[in-house]
């Protein structure tokens, strides 16, 4: 039997694993509920029981200037929103919203430094976890930019103030680059993946024009991807939504895995994605989180797992996972059905 | 170029300052506010919707166009109120209880406003009673709800139940939208309609009110 790590690597090397690897993404509330349902006292025990091939996540420890509980290192401030069965954090103060030029930002704002983080604990974070693939480093700067400026302003900036977007993204990518480089340096050869992500799709189309994406996002993401590849690290790219139009660009940039494959979104039909891109990229995700896991029955989930393995997993190149964090509304029975079906059906395919 | 064409072009291109300048100049020259609205702002936003649906415009372009339209509308408002110009309909709109994600809701509001509807913006995290109050106190004829999360979308049903319980469900059309929402879900909870984006929300609202 392969270890989790060997299973992931087999897929990445285009070899046949002993079964399809299964990843896990969920909110803390959903995990709590699943722990109670399965009678497990910790995540690792539950992951073993459900045959989840979880990743070990490494990150540096923050040692910079003090940050308030409701804030982050960028000076964004958050509220905890109660949705009835749990909470999520949402940014409500945007520290760069007040500025109307790059000069004004340069005069008044201090960007976080990679020196505000201590990387020395990273080797300890993977000690004893040799059987698992490791995730570390990566980037998702436009997400931070949206918090810094406010979502609508950030979107409008793309059309009205591209120089401001470019300036800030360079700062944010520089920080991510150096952070990632230092992580690799701590555990050479041990990081399996970096998430080089950016949300570029809505339910029905791209959020931004292909031209904007190609000029603003891709050159900067490419630099991150090159850093990863030079260190022998695989590039895991996440973008929600309908992104079919730019998948050829992502492949040309050098991505290795594409997540989350929201097949219910326009243009994201699984057969066509597999046919057109299956030899060039590995698919990760595919188990719908907006309808099937949340509102379907365990049988619906099993059927979907089977379809995903048949379609996305044909001749390999697929890692089974939910399309983003499983939310508390998804019944634990559905989550168990996902992993049981994946375990059973993933062996024979 | 004639004034209205300049205004339309500036809106489509998202040039708020130009819109402001030319709408003001048109008013100063004695053009009627209703002419500027019906022949300037509204057709411009219809064109923006068309460009979005055809994949030429994306969210940023739509947002800056809507913002430019809103600048012009602000100048027209006092004249429209004074002239007792009736909107196409009155829409109470909000994200549902527990949901703070409002970019979609704001875009729908702007597109509806740009089509000639009056908006009662109930903001974010709106409990069912807030919609009921708007229907009872502000004579709205459409209730529009938005949710980004699967964990909050179920609150849409609570609002419809509350409208029912208050005896006002029959007075309004209920439309819903947001990432996890589908037509099937709208049917399941008894909403009158669902639209996948802001542009189609305008057509949906017009269609529902025309049929009522």
Walkthrough of the structure:
The complex is a heterodimer of chains A (349) and B (212). Chain A is α/β, with parallel strands linked by helices and 349 residues long. Chain A has a domain at 1-55 and 233-349: TIM Barrel, CATH 3.20.20. In chain A, 44% of the residues lie in helices and 14% in strands. Chain A has 14 helices and eleven strands. Chain A has helices spanning 4-12, 28-38, 43-50, 102-108, 122-126, 141-149, 151-160, 162-186, 210-230, 247-253, 270-277, 292-295, 298-311, 332-348, and strands at 56-58, 61-62, 77-82, 87-93, 117-118, 134-139, 193-196, 234-238, 257-259, 282-287, 318-322. In chain A, the strands form three sheets. A seven-stranded parallel sheet of chain A has the order 1-6-7-8-9-10-11. In chain A, strands 2-5 form a two-stranded antiparallel ribbon. Chain A has a two-stranded antiparallel sheet with strand order 3-4. In chain A, helix 8 runs parallel beside helix 9 (210-230) and helix 13 (298-311) packs parallel to helix 14. The longest helix of chain A is centred in the middle third of the chain and has 25 residues, at 162-186. In chain A, 45% of the residues are buried. The mean pLDDT of chain A is 97. With 212 residues, chain B is an alpha/beta fold. Chain B folds into two domains: 3-82, Methionine synthase domain (Methyltransferase, Methionine Synthase (B12-binding Domains), Chain A, domain 1); 90-211, Rossmann fold (3-Layer(aba) Sandwich). Chain B is 60% helix and 10% strand. A five-stranded parallel sheet of chain B has the order 2-1-3-4-5, sandwiched between helices. In chain B, strand 1, helix 5 (103-114) and strand 2 form a beta-alpha-beta unit. The longest helix of chain B is centred in the first third of the chain and has 24 residues, at 59-82. In chain B, helix 4 (59-82) crosses helix 5. At the A-B interface, strand 3, strand 4 and helix 7 of A face helix 4 and helix 7 of B.
């Amino acid at each position: 039997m392969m270890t989790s790590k060997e299973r992931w690597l087999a897929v990445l090397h285009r070899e046949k694993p002993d079964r399809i690897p299964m990843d896990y993404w969920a909110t803390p509330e959903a995990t709590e509920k699943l722990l109670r349902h399965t009678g497990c006292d910790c995540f690792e025990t539950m992951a073993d029981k459900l045959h989840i091939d979880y990743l070990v996540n490494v990150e540096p420890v923050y040692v910079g200037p003090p940050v308030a509980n409701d804030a982050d290192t960028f000076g964004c401030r958050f509220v905890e929103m109660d949705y009835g069965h749990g909470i999520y954090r949402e940014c409500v103060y945007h520290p760069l919203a007040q500025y109307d030029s790059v000069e004004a930002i340069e005069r008044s704002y201090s960007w976080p430094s990679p020196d505000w983080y201590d990387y020395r604990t990273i080797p300890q974070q993977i000690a004893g976890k040799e059987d698992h693939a490791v995730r570390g480093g990566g980037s998702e700067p436009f997400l931070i930019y949206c918090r810094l400026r406010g979502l609508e302003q950030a979107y409008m900036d793309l059309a009205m103030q591209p120089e401001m977007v470019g300036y800030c993204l360079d700062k944010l990518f520089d920080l991510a680059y150096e952070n990632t480089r230092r992580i690799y340096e701590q555990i050479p050869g041990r990081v399996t993946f970096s998430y080089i992500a950016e949300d570029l799709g809505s339910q029905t189309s791209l959020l931004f024009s292909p031209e904007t994406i190609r000029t603003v996002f891709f050159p900067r993401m490419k630099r991150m991807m090159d850093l990863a590849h030079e260190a022998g690290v695989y590039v895991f790219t996440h973008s929600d939504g309908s992104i079919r139009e730019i998948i050829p660009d992502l492949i040309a940039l050098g991505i290795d895995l594409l997540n989350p494959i929201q097949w219910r979104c326009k243009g994201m039909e699984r057969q066509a994605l597999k046919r057109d891109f299956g030899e060039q990229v590995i698919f990760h995700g595919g188990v719908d989180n907006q309808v099937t896991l949340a509102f379907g029955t365990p049988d619906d989930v099993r059927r979907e797992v089977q379809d995903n393995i048949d379609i996305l997993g044909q001749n390999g190149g697929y890692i089974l996972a939910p399309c983003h964090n499983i939310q508390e509304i998804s019944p634990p029975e559905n989550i168990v059905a996902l992993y049981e079906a994946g375990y059973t059906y993933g062996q024979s395919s | 170029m004639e004034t209205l064409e300049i205004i339309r072009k500036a809106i489509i291109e998202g040039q708020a300052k130009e819109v402001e300048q030319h709408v003001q100049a048109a008013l100063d020259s004695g053009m009627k506010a209703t002419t500027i609205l019906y022949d300037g702002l509204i057709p411009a936003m219809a064109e923006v919707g068309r460009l979005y649906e055809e994949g030429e415009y994306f969210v940023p372009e739509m947002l800056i166009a809507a913002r430019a339209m809103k600048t012009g509308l602000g100048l027209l408002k006092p004249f429209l109120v004074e002239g007792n110009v009736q909107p196409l309909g009155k829409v109470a709109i909000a994200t549902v209880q527990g949901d703070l994600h409002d970019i979609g809701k704001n875009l729908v509001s702007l597109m509806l406003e740009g089509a000639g509807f009056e908006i009662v913006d109930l903001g974010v995290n709106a409990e069912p009673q807030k919609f009921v109050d708007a229907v009872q106190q502000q004579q709205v004829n459409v209730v529009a709800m938005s949710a980004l999360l699967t964990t909050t979308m179920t609150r849409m049903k609570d609002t419809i139940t509350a409208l029912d319980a208050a005896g006002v469900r029959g007075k309004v059309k209920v439309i819903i939208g947001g990432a996890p929402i589908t037509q099937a879900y709208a049917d399941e909870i008894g909403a009158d309609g669902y639209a996948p984006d802001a542009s189609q929300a305008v057509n949906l609202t017009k269609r529902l009110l025309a049929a009522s």
